[in-house]
Structures are given as structure tokens and as C-alpha cells.
Amino acid sequence: MLPKRSVSPEPTIRYNLPANHFLALQPSYSQTSIEFPTGELPSTSSHESNGQAPNTASLASADFEVDVRTGFLPGSKNVIRLLGKYEVWEEALDAAKGGRYIHNQPGQGLIVNGKREKEFLWRNAIDSMPVIDTADLLVSLPHLRRAHVVLTFLAHFYVHTTPTSPSSSTSSPKEPIPIPACISVPLLTVSPLLGLPPVLTYADTVLWNFLPVNPSIAPSATLNPPNEILTTFTGTKSEEQFFLISALCEIAGAEALRLMRQSLDELFLADEKALRRLTIYLKKLSNQIDKISDVTMTLMKQVDPEEFYHLIRPWFRGGDSDGPTSAGWNYLGLTENDNVEKTSSEAESSNTLGQKGKKFSGPSAGQSSLIHAIDIFLTVDHSPTVQERLEALNAVENPTQSKILVDSTPIVPPFSTSDEIQQTKPSQGPPSSHGHSSSSSPKGEATFVQRMLQYMPLPHRSFILHLSTHPTPLRPLVLHFAHSHPALALAYDGALEALRRFREKHMRVVSLFIIQQARRQPSERVRKLMGLKENPTENEFETEEKQIDINEIRGTGGSALFKFLKRCRDNTTKAMVRPNAAGYELE
Ligand code: HEM
Prior knowledge:
Layout: E1 29-30, E2 43-44, H1 87-97, H2 117-127, H3 141-159, E3 177-179, H4 181-194, H5 202-207, E4 210-212, E5 226-229, H6 237-269, H7 272-297, H8 299-302, H9 305-312, E6 329-331, H10 336-342, H11 369-378, H12 386-397, H13 418-423, H14 448-453, H15 458-469, H16 474-481, H17 486-519, H18 524-529, H19 561-574
Parallel strand pairs: 3-6
Antiparallel strand pairs: 1-2, 4-5
The protein binds protoporphyrin IX containing FE.
The site of protoporphyrin IX containing FE has 28 residues, from α6, α7, α17 and α19.
Keywords: Heme, Iron, Metal-binding
Pfam families: IDO (PF01231)
Organism: Kwoniella dendrophila CBS 6074
């Protein structure tokens, strides 16, 4: 029987939410306000409440909006279109895309950096749009989510069709790009309700942007898979497939979460029978991770790499996309004080707090909670090495010299000497964080995962933090029984091998879709869609055949790409109990 929940204060406002929705339940994590989760990092409270709060270390919980059937995808239908007074946003979005029913007809909508009358007229129409009160959206969570989707797509459409100011080409500082009040005011009201920054996230492009084959019932991997994407920038099949394939990975991930949950149940018993079952679940988990990899690899056929790199990806760029010299985005329509308070978010760099230019990152599949949850379950440690911490600090001090480009990572150097850094090495402290440490970590040490956490919807962020602060005893148990139960160790390492295979394949995807495309010119067909002249001028594509240092290329999440991805892969191998038996040499 579960212990009684500790009594939390009644929320002062209640929206019409489903009875089992996390906002309608007594919270098991501490928040200052149920209605307006602030920029504060959520903390899991069950370990702080003298055993009164339930242990929600389950891998599916209404509190965390992780559905037993659909994982991180919502179990209820995504809203297709906002109606009534909010339809004006939808109409603005239709206009940007070039029409309401534009699917697979690229070239109809706005173009990144487009200087045509089309872009000019669209932005003018946005400038004269009224600021609409968001109160009526509070009727349901799916409506709030759709509002975030529509407003962030509009914000990206607006920013990326705004002509760059003349000062940006000279040595004088760049001006932050304005986001008009009709977009920024409602966006800044809706975003904290969802626990998201006011920028396009993976939740907007994937989790809340699909319909399954039969939208009236919950999606499932085999019977009712995600089938349709609601909103794209370009209307291309490539963009639809890019989002859809991520949604298919998520639904395959729901089964992985189920297996992890079952494994946890066995861990508590840990008798002979339980160890046998655990071995079976780990083997099944390995198959399921391979399924996620297989789905990921369908990207290679379904998405045109050239379209992805030149047409689609530029729309994703956030306010930090030019690295340390980014001017950021200016959310208009707020008073001086509001500007500080309302745009404050953990996702924001501390050095832009209170400033006009906000440097949020664009969306990345790294913002999906799925792989992070599997990492934590299998105890893959992604905490930075001493060397990497030093490089990160060096990058802050000498941003132009360093190869490791730091983007919006909030950097406040918490230490000054390498000795002190050494003392903070997680392996020397309690093994509580497993590389996914939460807010207790100084900001200067923010890892990729910590940064990506801030771009996940609040319940998913809380879920990952909860998992990481309540580490599973899986690895210690496997180590303990490795000699007496070699099949268990084999199954555990097998799951890690599958995760390593996923990362290997993902690197092939990144190589094709980013590295290789950055090295060549777009074809005539794609140049046309980009609104470029037929014959490129000599210096228009300086990157042609240029020797690009792959360590310099940054992802939309702002990482020094390949170095980072390789490290994620190698960290997976390091978690193995017998890496040598699997044929891996560890450094
Ligand atoms: C065309 C498809 C894709 C491209 C170009 C791509 C690109 C990238 C890039 C550039 C990063 C580095 C972080 C960043 O800067 O954002 C990254 C990280 C990541 N991506 Fe993807 N990605 C793609 C598809 C996917 C899919 C389908 C998944 C999920 C199943 C995924 C999962 C991840 C994860 C978990 C990370 C964090 C690094 C790690 O844990 O290994 N990506 N991706």
C-alpha cells in the first residue's frame, strides 16, 4: 500500500483538466505555484518529505505526464487547430506556410532570409495583429500546447524573415531581433504554464505536433502509430518525415519504458526468480532499443539530406545560433520589469538575464527525454571530464580562440584552479547523479543533458530529475551477481551495446545530414526553393569543398558536434560490466 501523500496547499485556480492530469493531482514535487511553475528548477520532494510522499520512482506516472501506453507522447489527442479568437494565429501560420492545406508542395511559403514582397507583407500583417488575451486557452492542456506550437512557429517565421540590421555586418554590436508583442506577450504567458522557454522545442515539433492513424484513440507502436504531422515550416515531405520519425521513435520508446519499469519491480525482489526475469527484460530492452535505432535509420530514406540542411534546419535556429556573438531575440510588449521576470527561464543564459537579447537554443532531438531516461536506467555517466570542464571554462574566457564553442550554457565559473575542479569530479562524490545531476550542480558545469532538460516540458524534466536523484540499483546489482549469474551481466551489457549501436547509427545520420551537407553546395533544385540565384556567385558558398573541421560544426543545440557525439557513445561502452567480453577496449 502506498503511504499517504503529504498534504499540499490547494491550488488557487483550477482549470478544467482531466482528473488524472498532473496539474489536477496533489503534486509530489515541490513547486512555488501549481498554475505558474516558475523558472525555478523543479526538485523532487519525495526524498525530502520524511517518507510521507510516495516513491514515484515508477517509469510511468501521471505526475510526470509519462503515459503507460504512449510514453512521452501525450495519451490524449493533440489539438489540430485553435478556434475562435485564436484562429487569427492559425491563419497567420497558414499564410506563412503558403496556404492551409500545403503538404508536400514546397516553395509556396515564406523563405528564410526571404526579401520578397511575400515576406514583407506577411511581417507587416503580423505587426498589425492585436495582442490576444490567453485566459480562454486555460480550458485544457492540449489547447495550451497547441498555442505554444503555433506561437513558436510564428516567432521563428518572423525572426528568420527579418532582414538583418546593417550594423550586423560591421564591427558594431548586433541588435537583438525583435519579436512583436502580438506573438511575444501570449507566448510569454503560455510558456511558463508548460514549463518551457519561449522558443520552438522538440515538444512543439514532435510530441504535440502529430496525429496517429486513428486520432480518436491513443497512439500505439503497432496498431495506431503516429501518421500525420500538423505543422511544418516548409511543407516538404522531408520535414514531415523528420518530425514523424521522431514521434515513431517515441512510441517505440514507450515499450522500452515499460520494460524498464518491469525491471525495477524485479530489482526490489532480487531473488532467483526475479534475477531470471530481469535477465529476460534486459534482453527485450536491447531488442527495443534496436527498434528505436531501426526507426531512426529510416530517416536516411525518408528525408532528403540536402532539403534538411539547407531548407528545413535554418528555421530551427534559436537566439543563440551565432554562438557567443549572437545578439539574441528581443521579446517586445513587456515593461522593463516584465522583461526580466517573464523571459526568465532556466534555459536562458545567466549573462542575458535582464537584457533585451534572449539566447535560447533551437529544437533538437536531444531534447527528447527518451534516450536520457534509458541512460539513467542503465547508469550511463555523461558527466564532463576534468579536461572538458577546463575547455569549457577556457571557451568562456577566450570565446574566439576556443574550439569548444559554448552557446547559451549559463556560465558562472564556480571554481578557479584545476585542484578545485578535481575535487568536484563526480566519481569522487556520492554516486547520486550518474551524469544527470540536477540543479545542485553549479551552472558553469551545465552538461548537455542539463541544458536540454530546460527545453523539456516541466513534467518530463521533473521525471528525468526524479530518476537521476533516485538512481536505480541496477548496475550495482548486476556487478554483484556478475560471476554467479553471467547471463544477467551479458543481458545488461547487451542493452548497453544496443544503446551504443543506436549512437553509432545516429552519428551516421548526423554525418549525412549535417557534416556532408555543410561541405557542399545545394543543388539547383534546392537553390531555387531557397530563393537563391541560379548561378552561385564566387563567394556565396565559401564552404564548397572547404576543409571543414568537424569539431567546429555545431548542432542546433549548440555542441561541438562530433566530439560530443563520440563521447556519448564511449560513455555508453564505459558503463558495461564486461566491455572486453563484448570486444571493446576502454582507455
Ligand atoms: C536528421 C536527423 C537528426 C539529426 C540531423 C540529428 C542531429 C543531432 C545533433 C546535431 C545532435 C547534437 C546535439 C545538438 O546540438 O542538438 C544530436 C543529439 C542527439 N540526438 Fe539527434 N539528430 C537526428 C535525429 C535524432 C533522432 C531520431 C533521435 C532519437 C531517437 C535523436 C536523438 C538524439 C540524442 C539522444 C542526442 C543527444 C546525444 C546522445 O545522447 O547521443 N536524434 N542530434
